[in-house]
Design a protein that fits this description.
Low-confidence stretches: none
Number of strands: 0
Number of helices: 5
Length: about 160
């Protein structure tokens, strides 16, 4: 999916949209962890799940004394689409398709954090919270891309 998170003018709305996206991605990672066969991939998906939970906790903690309207769950429809994408990927019984589905989610979160870091409403104090998460997202995305490439390369050789 392609996300629109980070495109709204009102920065408060952007934060809410980001948290909803994070919750949707967390739901996706929970499902991916259940469906993965390869233990190394399963462990990595769990690590990424923990990272996304940490992003949510840190963002909510940062805004805890400033905001009372932060969501505790994702968008119902978008979350359903994320889980459906993973379930469909699982039908093939191939971990690489699950990895591709999670890469799609990481593309969305990376793009969202990048937009937020360039948003005119972002203050310097907020920047550190979002920059840390963005760096983690780039690492997740890089690992997924490299692993998918390696698996596909190995499949071509055999």
């Amino acid at each position: 999916m392609t996300t629109l998170v980070g495109k709204k003018k009102n920065f408060d709305d952007v934060v809410i949209d980001l948290l909803e996206l994070e919750y949707d991605v967390i739901g996706g990672y929970k499902l991916a962890v259940e469906k993965m066969f390869h233990s190394e991939y399963k462990d990595k998906m769990y690590d990424f799940l923990v990272d996304h939970k940490l992003h949510v906790d840190e963002i909510k903690e940062f805004y805890s004394d400033k905001r009372s309207d932060l969501p505790d769950s994702g968008d119902l429809i978008k979350g359903l689409l994320t889980r459906m994408k993973i379930s469909i990927s699982d039908i093939t019984g191939s971990d690489v398709n699950l990895l591709r589905a999670m890469l799609d989610s990481e593309d969305d979160t990376s793009q969202a954090y990048q937009r937020i870091l360039n948003h005119p409403g972002l203050s310097d104090s907020e920047r550190c919270v979002f920059d840390k998460a963005y760096k983690a997202e780039k690492q997740h995305k890089g690992w997924l891309e490299a692993t998918i490439s390696e698996v596909v390369s190995d499949e071509v050789k055999h």
